[in-house]
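Reply to dn_fold:

You asked what the input looked like. This is it:
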Amino acid sequence: MPSIRWNWRWLMRPIKLEMQGFTSFRQHSELHFSELDLFAITGPTGAGKSSLLDAITYALYGKTARLGKSGTARELVSQGCTSMFVALEFHAANEIYRVHRGIKGSSVKARLSTKSAGGEWGSGIASIREIDAAVERIVGLDFEGFTRAVILPQGQFDEFLRGDARQRRGVLKDLLNLQHLESMMQKANAKAQHFTIQMQAIESQVDEEVTDETRKQLENSIATLTSQETQHHELIRRLEQCEQTAEQLANLRLQSQNYETGFQASEQESVKLQVEIQNSQKLFQQSQKELEEIQSAIAAVAYDSDEHFRLTQWAPQAERLEKLRAQLPELNKKKTSGERDLESAAAGLKEADSILAGAAHAHKSDEEKLQAAKDSCQVMQQHYGLPANVRALAPRLKQLPQLEQQISLLRSEIGSAHKKLSGKEKFLSGLADAVEQARTRKHAAEEQLEHFKVKHRAAELRHGLHLGSPCPVCEQTVTTVPPAIAVAGVQDAEIMVQKADEVLAQARAAAAKAPGEFDLIARDIAHYAEKLHDLEASVSSIREQARTMLGAEPGPQSLDQLEQLALSIEQAQKEVDKSDKQVRASREAESEARQNAESLKHKCERSRERLEDITMQIRETQGETEELERKLSGAPALPLLKQQLEKLNHAKTAREDLEKRHNKAESAKAAAETAITDLQGRLKSETSRARKAKKDLEKVTGEIEAAVETLKASAPLELSNGAELATVKRELKIAGERLRDAELARNKQQVQLQGVVEKLEKNRELLERCAALKKSTAIYRELGTLLHANQFQDYMLRSSYQLLAQAGSQYFQDLTGGRYSFHVQEDQFSVRDHANGDDLRSAGTLSGGESFLASLSLALALAQSIAELSGERGFVALESLFLDEGFSTLDPETLGKVADALPALQKKGRLIGVITHVESLAEQLPARIEIEKTSNSSRIVQRGAAGKGTFVPLASFAVNS
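and this is what came back:
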């Protein structure tokens, strides 16, 4: 049997719980555990007692057991709220922590902080994933393990004690979560299969065609190609030297051709220049003769330039004087007409100003009338509003009696609902009594059925008894066969059990349904109250509006008064519209009169300006005429002046033509003289260039002969005269191609060699990985084989029986004053009665209260040992308990035993909270936490406190029976 190891490395006790918007706790609520030892948690059904445990698990792990796998944390938010938070302050491992989780809108936030020695909270961590990992590390259990320790399965242990061996095995498997062994076996086999597939895949990647011999062949071939490359490089070097000499030879031959061509061109150009010099000398002589003839013609032309200038100045002045003398009579006529127009425009302007003054006075009077009408209408609208607003009150006044009747009916409905709700506790108590009576009748029917079944089994056993044969039960020899007995009533007893079970189910359904129906009544009351408030507000608003408009309480004449008031407001608005129309008409008349006056004013100004312009033109014309007459005092008449001017113009034109011919002839003479000088210089240069070209040609011919001899001596092949460079380039190209082919072949084989080396290395790595995978496959296959055998689970169950019996005995002795402990033989549980000489008794012989204490002891033992039994991390120190429900079904005697046993659990400083409906049990505890249910929320009320003792870090659990 394994020894029990108590390792207290996980010690946790809650200090304070805060929440808001969480399930039934809509408002901010706090629960302080620091001064509590033994206390009761009470409150009506649905108030939120069990929600305290949900709040603790949600604060630590972000989820609760009641949500299940498919639920979300948003289901924990109070109805009608958009946000919630839960904060738990707890002591663990000599540190004080505070974990906070909340939902606001669409975001979920959390924070875990540690309290410093100075009492200040650190910034902590805000990542939900990091917080979940930190809580598991601090607490020592994940959510599943913590939940099995918090909500202790006391009811399952009652089945564990009373059931047969097969039932005990099934219950313990569920409690210890041994199903994970089968999961481990499946995962191990899957791992082995996965590694096998990986190994086969890796083996298929090994390239068996690549060997060390292949690598050596490639290395030898690369060495041969490298030697060939060296030979090609030497040939290319010699050919490149020959290429330079051949290029020099080709350049020399090209220079020879250029020198010979230049010599011939210079000879031809010299002959051409001599001909051009002779032609230019002839042109010079012709230009000299033409100049002499033109100079004689210029001397024969008579032209006086001073007289021509004077006549040119007088001609336009005489023409201007004649034009001005013709304009003066017309200007005097325009002046007389302008004076008449100005007088007429001034008379019209005076009349228009008089009309404008009258229109302005009428417009001002109409605007004063409009403002008075607007003021009157505005006063009425400010006090009563628009006519539509006044008339809108009429249908609401008509509804007033109907609304007051609805208010009376709602008040009656609310009173009736309050009357139904007042009998809630009595009705629920009656349903609870009905459930208890149905349960008692079912229990009696089951006992009667069991009685008949025992007799039936005895009768069946009697048929198998024969004198002298061994008994199938005790294996002793049968000496006497009992007489046959008739057994009846088994079927009737089964029918009675079935009927009792149906009655119990109906009673439970009614009891479960009743609180919801009362909740519906409460919601109806709230709905009626809200509707009543709205109706009363509507009635008050209608009356207040009627008093404001009519100046009195509404009565029979109110509708007529409202209509008359609306008509008065409409009439005032009509007066405003009429006055506004008259103002627009007078404004338009004033505008037209002003426009007419402005137009006449502009017309008068334009007439005055035109008259002034004409007068100015007359004065300017007279002044200019007098000035021109003074300037032309010695000039001939205009016709004679024009004849003299025309004669001088012809003489000037003839002289200008002769001067142009003279200038042209001089230019031709100078050009011929310049051309002769230039051509003689060019002829001298061409003669010098021809002599130099002949000398260079002789020098290049000697260099060509020397280059041919050098090339023949150094070339590695025969070269034809004149094609040396082309031959060398062709051979150089062939040698380069052969070198590139050799390099390409060598590079290709080097790449192949590198690929072979890499494949050889890859093959080595793949084979090493195959060896490692083969080893891992063998380990996981062996693990799967071991876990497949039932012996391992049997070993776990036998060890768990011993551990539960030993740990449960410690609690059972504390709860029964040392009278009882557990004893286990293989998979059979029994009770050792120390008050009767350590006599062994079947668990089925315990009374109801003793059975409750026995199942509670085993539940506490499971929570204490759950980490060691199920492989969780660390071990749990059970120093604080929450007992949830299970007490309402106990009879008074059993309840008294439980009440006496609770102080024994609290002796060692444990924190014990009892969640119960039983008032008599709650009254026996020194402190109480009441969960009060209000109309829209629940609140926590702490009454009384346990005596203060030494603070010990504790862990919190709940027993759910």
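The longest helix spans residues 212-300.
Hope that clears it up.
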